[in-house]
Amino acid sequence: MSGPSHQNSAPVWNHSRLSRREALQAGAVGILGLGMNHLAGLREAQGAADAVPNGKAKKLIFIFLSGGLAQHESFDMKPEAPEDVRGEFKPIATKTPGLQICEHLPQLAQRSEMWSLCRSLTHGSNEHSAGHHIMLTGHSELPTGFSPNSPSRRDRASIAAITGYAMRQRQKNNLPTAVVLPERLVHNSGRVIPGQHAGEMGPQHDPWMIEASPFHNTSYGAFPEYAFDHQERGKKDNRVFQAPQLSLPEGLGMRSVRGRLDLLKSMNRQRRALGHHAQVENFDRLRQGAVSLLTESTVHDALDVTHADEKDLDRYGRNSFGWSLLMARKLVGAGVTLVQVNLGNDETWDTHGNAFPHLKNNLLPPTDKAVSALLDDLQASGELDETMIVMAGEFGRTPRITLLEKHYKLPGRDHWGPLQSVFFAGGGIQGGNVVGKSDAIGAYPIERPVKPENFAATLYSALGIPATAAWYDVADRPHQIYHGEPIAELF
């Protein structure tokens, strides 16, 4: 089913013209027939349109550091600044002449020819929920009626949702196009952080959520090896990292009609049983994806990372950061287009206090190890050039160090929207490159300021999504995907 004619000659992504009942019927036909002709019809019923032109990147791994990575303690150190700005850590040289990063990122320093930095991303919010919405959606302005306390269908669509929607035509299998793991971002009070789902696009476009990491309201970081509590409250962390294991009951016949009906009933039972593991309210749209998750051995292997090859576990790290990035690598290898990896639950990187020991001992080492292993794997397999990796948080940290004596024994930095450093690799990124420059104390950009809209456009452009692309809502109103220019200097 082709969409209506529009003025632009570039491809346009349309919303479904079928009724919900017809779309569900199409899904039912697809799961009972399990034929590619039915799958094609189902995808058209969901609003896929003309094919996406080939981009340099075919896959995207979006590493999100909830809480806000301190630029001074990572990729934009200020060794010449006053003591209350420069902090305790020392810079080290990378393989790129003139480029220095934090001493606690030694493995990434040895791989600088594979990655680049933007040191000048800026936006106007110092609040966690607003910052999450801004960076996860690529929109500097908050929507009307935005609530920091709960997600809403008035929210903007996340980058993961937009990418999954736009790239569906390129997907050559029945797997979900966009996946988020290993946990949704939840505040320690229990409220879900906005910006993680498809927002105004509707729940049928939400990314798949693979919840492998149970919620813990005081423990953060790469558990079990590097778990910590920002305020050292002493609440024990007994979490186990375990992705949902989807399996077929013994003796289920896939070749018979009855077997397929039994499969549908079985999946509905598993949907109820696994409700606490994954976000599945859009199950009707994703029935074919569920079949693939159940039957693809590569997917089972991707999810069962805690029992992966011993050498892989040693390289990535036997902790939630290492397991999560190993899972992401396996999922893109199996055919998933976008994987968003939340390295730590909400505010893991929120280093208001005890910042230097927590970064040195609990946060930077497992990140350095796991991201380096991911780069090595993709380069060795020849996939780095077509797999983009980005790493960012909702904001940076204040230039000056402070001590909040009521909550912390040692100092740290507060929220800072005006500046953060963003890491880019693969997918056509020119390695060893730095875009933008901050001032002498790492507070504001002084060269090439970059907005979240530019950040999102860079990802879309690398994936080959046309600059004129749009999605259409149920009232046939177009919504542009791009709201800024890509960061051209990265390529």
Account of the 3D structure:
The chain is of the alpha/beta class and 491 residues long. The chain has one domain (51-243, 304-490): Alkaline Phosphatase, subunit A. 29% of the residues lie in helices and 12% in strands. The chain has 13 helices and 16 strands. It has helices at residues 20-33, 36-45, 83-86, 106-109, 128-137, 159-166, 257-273, 287-295, 297-303, 310-316, 320-334, 355-381, 452-462; strands spanning 59-65, 91-93, 100-102, 115-121, 178-181, 208-209, 338-342, 387-393, 396-397, 415-416, 420-425, 434-435, 437-438, 445-447, 470-472, 478-480. The protein has an eight-stranded mixed beta sheet with strand order 6-5-7-1-8-11-4-12, with helices on both faces. Strands 2-3 form a two-stranded antiparallel ribbon. Strands 9-10 form a two-stranded antiparallel ribbon. Helix 1 runs antiparallel to helix 2, helix 9 (297-303) runs antiparallel to helix 11 (320-334) and helix 10 (310-316) crosses helix 11. The radius of gyration is 22 Å and the shape is globular. 52% of the residues are buried. Mean pLDDT is 84; it is low at 1-54, 252-258 and 276-285. This is DUF1501 domain-containing protein. It comes from Blastopirellula marina. Pfam families: DUF1501.
How many domains? The number is 1
**What is the CATH-assigned architecture?**
3-Layer(aba) Sandwich
User: At the third CATH level, what is the topology name?
Assistant: Alkaline Phosphatase, subunit A
How confident overall, as mean pLDDT? 84
For the report, how would you describe the main beta sheet?
Answer: 8 strands, mixed
Query: Rg from C-alpha positions?
Result: 22 Å
CATH class: Alpha Beta
Count of DSSP E strands?
16
Structural class: alpha/beta
Organism: Blastopirellula marina
Protein name: DUF1501 domain-containing protein
InterPro entries: Alkaline_phosphatase_core_sf, DUF1501, TAT_signal
Pfam family, one: DUF1501
